[in-house]
């Protein structure tokens, strides 16, 4: 760990949603790279420096501009003084230079005041540890964020995450308690309150089946947290089970704001469509929308609600093409009116020749009626028809019996993080291998029975793995920032369907696998589904399977990050 540490002063909480710091990227297919344009936080020092050195080109402008140049100079010296103070307070200069606003008013924590207990999570860009704060005795989570050679853009993206976290203050949103950093090292620890579980882990656990009041309790907290984020001008853009953390008192908290962004509905700015983990990604993003809003988080919330009732993820696509296919088969394809009005970039490629019918009610016929009605409105294809978090909280799902239970009345579960599910999986595999060797033949028989239910086949994460592999390649080559590391959309889109084939949707296609969601969805945990997909190159899947072995959890694919 590093050598410095600190405790924050109260975070500023502006009454109005903060403006988006900078325009996000232009539509990916028009931009030079998929994620280049998305700017995290402004670099005040750089902006001020630019303003100071800028000379008015024309004489007549000189007097007008001299005032602003003087102001910029003052601003510049203010920024420099603030930076000096931050460095004097123990912050490393590289952090203060790029993320001054994010650490404003905080003092760094000393690393040696924490005792690491265990590694509890792993994300695409971080490792998460359980640790003891030796000053307070509290158990905390330390999220260690890796930087690539202190590339300022990566640091700014992390700064955006911290700024967003500091602007939020709600019982259903994770709280950041401080930062641990080092003048010497290239990493930073974010200190969070410790949460025992995540929802993905609980859903994957074969012994846990939620009752309706419990589902209402979780959904009530999720939607209240989202309502707060949206009221404060924040889109989360990565709502999924593993980002919904739970403590032993039944409190749910939305976590991982690494993909979150400020937005201002009155000032339209293009945003990247390469956000939200695939299974929870709404159709407008898959169709390339760059002008979107709170509806993206509400779609993901609808997927979570159905997942809690079904006991497994409802649309586990392996590729973007397959994901869209699954969405159309369950939710119907967009209406003619929507295709025309939305003018979505990928509409011509993905518009099916024959429309698909909506089948949510047929598919989930065992779900409670009020839950079905809420799912119907959250999983509306047109985001304009989706409920907001506030209106979802008023729906009869919450206002009719059986009511949501109290969080404190929820059962106390054994450790059940996504990572624990992965560990269980690994242990079962090892003991099968050992038993197989001892018995000579037992290994294969046990396999399908022992795998936690609802866990997708390993290649479900193939698209992520390919992105990560590509990212690593580029990273090794030029150590560029994260947002430049993902393949351009045309390459990414190519993942998952055979080269030369048409990726036009075929409404007549029915997957060979009868357990895919196009069949009736039983309101119970079923055995591990096999995954079907019309548009996948089998040889590519073979490679992906092999690659996946070294990747993180097989449970849910992570987002191809557009940081
Ligand atoms: N406050 C916390 N308390 C306990 N566990 C946590 C906490 N924060 C994160 N974790 C665990 O660590 C995992 C990874 O954390 P997080 O999602 O913030 O990292 P990430 O790098 O952004 O991940 P991803 O690539 O999945 O988006 C979570 O799924 C969770 O299991």
UniProtKB/TrEMBL annotation:
One GO location term (cellular component): cyclin-dependent protein kinase holoenzyme complex
Regions of compositional bias (Basic and acidic residues) in chain numbering? 415-430
Q: Which residues bind ATP?
A: 143
Catalysed reaction equations from the record: [DNA-directed RNA polymerase] + ATP = phospho-[DNA-directed RNA polymerase] + ADP + H(+)
The GO biological-process annotations, alphabetized, read as: positive regulation of transcription elongation by RNA polymerase II
Q: Which SMART domains match?
A: S_TKc
Query: What EC number is given for this enzyme?
Result: 2.7.11.23
* Listed Pro residues bias regions: 9-26
Q: Which Gene3D superfamilies match?
A: Phosphorylase Kinase, domain 1, Transferase(Phosphotransferase) domain 1
Q: Name the source's superkingdom.
A: Eukaryota
Q: Which UniProt keywords apply?
A: ATP-binding, Kinase, Nucleotide-binding, Phosphoprotein, Serine/threonine-protein kinase, Transferase
Under the heading InterPro entries, the entry gives: CDK, Kinase-like_dom_sf, Prot_kinase_dom, Protein_kinase_ATP_BS, Ser/Thr_kinase_AS
The record's similarity note reads: Belongs to the protein kinase superfamily. CMGC Ser/Thr protein kinase family. CDC2/CDKX subfamily.
Write the protein's name.
Answer: [RNA-polymerase]-subunit kinase
Q: What organism does the UniProt record list as the source?
A: Brachypodium distachyon (Purple false brome)
């Amino acid at each position: 760990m590093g050598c410095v540490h600190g405790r924050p002063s109260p975070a500023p909480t502006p009454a109005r949603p903060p403006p988006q710091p900078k325009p996000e990227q232009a539509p990916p297919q028009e931009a030079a790279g998929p994620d280049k344009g998305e700017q995290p936080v402004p670099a005040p020092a750089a902006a001020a420096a630019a303003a100071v050195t800028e000379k008015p080109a024309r004489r007549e402008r000189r007097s007008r501009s001299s005032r602003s140049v003087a102001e910029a100079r003052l601003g510049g010296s203010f920024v420099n003084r603030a930076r000096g103070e931050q460095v004097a307070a123990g912050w490393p200069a590289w952090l203060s230079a790029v993320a001054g606003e994010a650490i404003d008013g905080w003092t760094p924590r000393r690393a040696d005041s924490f005792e690491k207990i265990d590694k509890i999570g792993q994300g695409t860009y971080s490792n998460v540890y359980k640790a003891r704060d030796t000053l307070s005795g509290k158990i905390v989570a330390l999220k260690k964020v890796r930087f690539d050679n202190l590339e300022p853009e990566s640091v700014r993206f992390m700064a955006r995450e911290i700024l967003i976290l500091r602007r939020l203050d709600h019982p259903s949103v994770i709280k950041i308690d401080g930062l641990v950093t080092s003048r010497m090292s290239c990493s930073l620890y974010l200190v969070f309150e410790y949460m025992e579980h995540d929802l993905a882990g609980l859903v994957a656990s074969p012994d846990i089946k939620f009752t309706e009041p419990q589902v209402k309790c979780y959904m009530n907290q999720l939607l209240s947290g989202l309502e707060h984020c949206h009221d404060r001008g924040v889109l989360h853009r990565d709502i999924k089970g593993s980002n919904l953390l739970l403590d032993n008192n039944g409190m749910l908290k939305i976590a991982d704001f690494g993909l979150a962004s400020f937005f201002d509905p009155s000032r339209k700015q293009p945003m990247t469509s390469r956000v939200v983990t695939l299974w929870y990604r709404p159709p407008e993003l898959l169709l390339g929308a760059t002008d979107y809003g709170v509806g993206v988080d509400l779609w993901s919330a609808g997927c979570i609600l159905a997942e809690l009732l079904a006991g497994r993820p409802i649309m586990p696509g392996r590729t973007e093409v397959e994901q869209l296919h699954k969405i159309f088969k369950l939710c119907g394809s967009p209406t003619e009116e929507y295709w025309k009005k939305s003018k979505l970039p990928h509409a011509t490629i993905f518009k099916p020749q024959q429309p698909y019918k909506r089948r949510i009610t047929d598919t989930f016929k065992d779900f409670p009626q009020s839950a079905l009605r809420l799912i119907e409105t959250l999983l509306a294809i047109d985001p304009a028809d989706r409920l907001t978090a506030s209106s979802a909280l008023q729906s009869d799902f919450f206002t009719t019996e059986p009511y949501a239970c109290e969080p404190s009345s929820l059962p106390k579960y054994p450790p059940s993080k996504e990572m624990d599910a992965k560990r269980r999986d690994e242990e079962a595999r090892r003991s099968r291998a050992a038993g197989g060797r001892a018995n000579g033949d037992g290994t294969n028989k046990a396999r399908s029975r022992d795998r936690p239910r609802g866990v997708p086949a390993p290649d479900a994460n193939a698209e992520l793995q390919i992105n990560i592999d590509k990212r690593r390649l580029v990273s090794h080559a030029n150590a560029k920032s994260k947002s430049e590391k993902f393949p351009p959309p045309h390459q990414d889109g190519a993942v998952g369907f055979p080269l030369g084939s048409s990726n036009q949707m075929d409404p007549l296609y029915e997957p060979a696998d009868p357990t895919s969601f196009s069949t009736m969805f039983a309101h119970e945990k079923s055995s591990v589904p096999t995954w079907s997909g019309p548009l996948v190159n089998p040889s590519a899947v073979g490679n992906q399977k092999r690659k996946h072995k070294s990747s993180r959890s097989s449970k849910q694919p992570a987002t191809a990050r557009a940081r």
